[in-house]
Amino acid sequence: MLRDLTLPHPLPFRTGEAVLRRAAEQDADALIALLADDAVSSARGDRARPEDRGLYTSALRDILASDSNDLLIAETADGVAATFQLTLIPGMARRGASRLLVEAVRVRSDLRSAGLGSALMRWVTDAAAPQLGAGLVQLTSDAARVDAHRFYERLGFAGSHIGFKYSVAETSEPDASPGSGATLSSS
What we know:
The chain is of the alpha+beta class. It has helices at residues 28-36, 39-43, 53-65, 93-96, 116-132, 146-154; strands at residues 9-13, 16-22, 69-76, 79-89, 98-107, 134-139. The two termini are 31 Å apart.
């Protein structure tokens, strides 16, 4: 967990107010539902299947146990409304600047375009990054998320880089290292 973050934090947005706080294990089902409530995530396999719950809860525990990561939730009177992950990355480039990586931003579908996403990202750039000593806030966004790209650009983010991903194939074999005969694919 990123201990220097001042949380919980009130988060007013255009149509209401939320409280920004750290996720906890008991939030797992709400977080899984947020991932499944997103068409791109759902297409990647985030479908809130009961048999996947253990994978999600294990990942949540790992994130919360890491000194360089945090998983945050915006909660309204109606429950969990949004989430995102922050990772602080020390770096050599840019004269040793640390970067604050924002990942998996999800806003509940009934609250999209209500100003909650803007309030979250303003908190990241105006409060979290300075508190953590980050000189740069960065994120990636799936190429299919054209509306999200416009959203981030309106907030002052620049589409300055092209990102690449390499998907490592799942295997049930204990030795799936390169050269072991395991099949690797990318998408």
